[in-house]
Known about the structure:
Strands 1-2-3-4 form a 4-stranded parallel sheet. Helix content is 48%, strand content 10%. It is α/β, with parallel strands linked by helices.
Amino acid sequence: MVSDLQRKGEAFKALHDRDGIFVxxxxxxxxxxxxxxxxxFEALATTSAGSNYANGTTDWxxxxxxxxxxxxxxxxxxxxxxxMNGDLENGYGDSPEDVAETIRQxxxxxxxxxxIEDYTGDAANPLYDLGLATERIAAARxxxxxxxxxxxxxxxAEC
Length: 159
């Protein structure tokens, strides 16, 4: 799987490096991923909302634990030949270590990109402070780099 991840990671990075734009569609299961790949999308991106709704729960509430969500995303990533970007919510934890572990698990599941949000899930304090948000993204980048797989990391601001 490492050579396949390497190939997908290089392809995903190349999509970002080339001139122009590309569109990633959001599958929520294996069937939708295969249909979108067959329709010609060059990369796909998981959707936490789509996965949550398909499982009968709301988005933003983190009802589905990290391991289960990554297992679902891995099922999607491994059934297609195109690169897969993961909607990794807030990294499934507050600490930089939690975020790094989410990146490691995502790569092991077959993703070659992922986004980490600065949304805390706490309505009273909805965004991480800038210092912690920066540490969380740095930990994610370090974990991705340690894998040896080209991994496109997106730090997503919910503000």
